[in-house]
Amino acid sequence: MTAAGYFPTTNSMYNMMTGVEPEYRGRGIALALKLLVIRCARKYGVAYLRTNNDSENVPMLTVNRKLGYLPVPGKYLLCSICL
Ligand SMILES: CC(C)(COP(=O)(O)OP(=O)(O)OC[C@H]1O[C@@H](n2cnc3c(N)ncnc32)[C@H](O)[C@@H]1OP(=O)(O)O)[C@@H](O)C(=O)NCCC(=O)NCCS
Q1: Model confidence over 58-80: pLDDT tens digits?
Q2: Mutate to test the pocket of ligand 1, among 15, 16, 25, 67 (most ligand atoms within 8 A of CB)
Q3: Which atom of ligand 1 is least distant from the CA of 62?
Q4: Which of 6, 70, 18 is nearest to 42 (CA)?
Q5: What is the model's pLDDT at position 75?
Q6: 2 forms bridges with which residues in the sheet?
Q7: Residue 73 gets which letter from DSSP?
Q8: Whole-number Cα distances in Å, 24 to 7, 19, 31, 78
Q9: What does pTM read for this prediction?
Q10: Which SUPFAM superfamilies does the protein's record reference (predicted)?
Q11: Pocket of ligand 1 (CB under 6 A)
Q12: Are 1 and 18 in contact (CB under 8 A)?
């Protein structure tokens, strides 16, 4: 699955959560899903498309880099378990 939201005020789209069942991972399914969102964004004629990525989530980072998403300053979360 993947989900996208369109925001008319900024004419932008946001590709939120993407997920692939564990037994189907590593077959390019996430890449294909996120390409469908890009196709959808083009149909809407958006000014820009955003997504978020945990910096330690290597598979998602790999897909997003492949698709040309550019990193920008993000949120830094402190994990209470790590403190
Ligand atoms: C992230 C997720 C959606 C990726 O789905 P997927 O269908 O396996 O992704 P793809 O097969 O399209 O691509 C994954 C890429 O990461 C690479 N990869 C996976 N694990 C890796 C690792 N540990 N180190 C380096 N590369 C890795 C794969 O080799 C592949 O790249 P390649 O095609 O160049 O070989 C899936 O792992 C998932 O559902 N995770 C849990 C939910 C989640 O974290 N979602 C993201 C937050 S919204």
Answers
A1: 999 999 999 999 999 888 878 77
A2: 25
A3: 16
A4: 6
A5: 83
A6: 18
A7: -
A8: 31, 10, 13, 31
A9: 0.93
A10: Acyl-CoA N-acyltransferases (Nat)
A11: 17-20, 25-31, 57-60, 62-63
A12: yes
